[in-house]
Amino acid sequence: MKILICDKIHPDALEFLNKKKADTLYLPEIMPLELLQKVGDAQALIVRSRTKVTREVIEKGINLKIVARAGSGTDNIDKLACQQRGTAVINSPGANAQAVAELTVGLILSLLRQIPKADRSMHEGEWLKKELMGAEIYNKTVGIIGYGYVGKKVTALVRVFGANVLVVGSHDEEEKLISLLKTSDIVTLHVRLNDKTRGLINKDRLALMKSTSYLINNCRGEVVVENDLYETLLNKKIAGAALDVFWKEPLTAPNRWMGLDNCILTPHISGQTQEATRKACMMAVTDVVKFLQGKVINSRVI
Length: 302
Known about the structure:
Residues 3-301 form the D-isomer specific 2-hydroxyacid dehydrogenase catalytic domain. This protein is of the alpha/beta class. Helices cover 36% and strands 15% of the residues. The protein has helices at residues 11-19, 32-38, 55-60, 79-85, 97-113, 115-123, 149-160, 174-183, 203-206, 226-234, 274-292; strands spanning 2-5, 23-26, 44-47, 66-69, 88-90, 141-145, 164-168, 186-189, 214-217, 240-243, 263-265. A six-stranded parallel beta sheet has the order 7-6-8-9-10-11, sandwiched between helices. A five-stranded parallel beta sheet has the order 2-1-3-4-5, with helices on both faces. Helix 5 packs across helix 7 (149-160). The protein is elongated.
């Protein structure tokens, strides 16, 4: 079995493939042009979020049987092209759910307690004890949009703090979403990016949120309309936001988000823990080997 790995994966996953006698080409920094040159020999392609598996890549992959995403989101893979070519697509569902959920709670605390500002001011020699009045999660209403692996874990974690929870799932009616946005003190997004969710949070829906509320996005940048959120924060129409994902990544400096004092920015680290990385990579390589051996797997997207 010939496997091309295009992004950095956990050493245990490489060791697993070695034990399975896989013919593995590990190129974790491969660039698009080189990928087009190398993919022709591969039966399997393993990627994380960096590598874009375009239609051109799929067409060049004349021996390609499966594309594996070591992670949950598959929006960096042209799934229509895969479907048309009969190439399977799999992911690692739920592998990073705990990591994403924990960061969500960390961002909630950071917003409510102004932790980034407190840290920054201390490093600048200031003592802002009187100015840094925070708030508690206890008895706040946390609105969770998306109730999959991550949404369920966020629900469990914030309830430990005594928060009230509202949930909107992918099949819920518009009225339920409107009620959540109007009622919640914290709105946190945990949906997959697709045609239904792209631009889900726009100017009209942001306008429903309370002026004292916060928005957290660590699913995909395009779920929120960029200009609408920027204008909302600039004009202080909500209290603040925390963003771990962006419309174009990496987010380069300088950029307009850096000038907002009510927005916490992190560089797409929500699923980036040692534990989540290992789990996602092990799930991906295990299922790739099973698939190439003709065995049944449960992680197929296509």
